[in-house]
């Protein structure tokens, strides 16, 4: 089953809602769609709401996705010569969410500005969007 992505821009934030069964290939595809939406909208903050994603990624899948995400964002920054690297917040639930945040660590170690949350309001606050009523 394919992951389904919907994107909307509100208050300077690109909000991506993702549903469906996790697979590395589908997660990579949806991330590329999110990145493609950044430039025309001049967006620097991204909220990926993956609370409706199901599955249980293994450690290798988490590694691959974190590495891919950091590489894709770095390529976007290079190719579009953006002034500020986009800030990504992911909101996930276990077991898609790894309590040890391995995928996040992989991406951060490769230069991506990203943080994973299990709480929607905390993610908004980290993005500087607290109290915007976007839940």
Features:
135 residues, alpha/beta, Transcription Regulator spoIIAA, five-stranded mixed beta sheet, 5 strands, globular
Q: Gist?
A:
With 135 residues, the chain is α/β, with parallel strands linked by helices. It contains four helices and five strands; from the N terminus they run E-E-H-E-H-E-H-E-H.
Distance between the termini: 26 Å
**Global outline:** globular
Total number of helices = 4
Strand order of the largest sheet: 1-2-3-4-5
Q: What is the helical fraction, as a range of percent?
A: 40-55%
CATH fold name, please? Transcription Regulator spoIIAA
- CATH superfamily annotation: STAS domain
Oligomer: single chain
Q: What order do the helices and strands follow?
A: EEHEHEHEH
Main β-sheet description: 5 strands, mixed
Low-confidence runs: none
Mean pLDDT: 94
Number of strands: 5
Structural class: alpha/beta
Radius of gyration: 14 Å
CATH architecture: 2-Layer Sandwich
Number of structural domains: 1
Relative strand content:
25-35%
**The CATH top-level class label:** Alpha Beta
Protein model, in words:
The chain has helices at residues 24-41, 59-80, 102-109, 120-126, and strands at residues 4-10, 13-21, 45-54, 87-91, 113-117. The chain is of the alpha/beta class and 135 residues long. The chain has a single domain, classed as STAS domain (Transcription Regulator spoIIAA). A 5-stranded mixed β-sheet has the order 1-2-3-4-5, sandwiched between helices. The longest helix is centred in the middle third of the chain and has 22 residues, at 59-80. The protein is globular and about 35 Å long. It starts with a strand and ends in a 9-residue tail after the last helix. The mean pLDDT is 94.
């Amino acid at each position: 089953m394919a992951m389904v992505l919907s994107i909307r821009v509100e208050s300077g934030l690109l909000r991506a809602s993702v549903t469906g069964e996790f697979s590395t290939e589908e997660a990579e595809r949806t991330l590329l769609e999110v990145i493609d939406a950044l430039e025309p909208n001049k967006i620097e903050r991204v909220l990926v709401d993956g609370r409706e994603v199901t599955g249980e990624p293994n450690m290798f899948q988490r590694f691959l996705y974190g590495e891919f995400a950091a590489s894709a964002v770095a390529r976007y920054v290079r190719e579009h010569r953006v002034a500020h690297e986009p800030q990504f917040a992911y909101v996930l639930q276990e077991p898609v969410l790894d309590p040890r945040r391995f995928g996040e660590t992989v991406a951060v170690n490769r230069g991506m500005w990203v943080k994973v949350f299990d709480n929607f309001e905390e993610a908004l606050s980290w993005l500087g969007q607290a109290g915007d009523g976007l839940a």
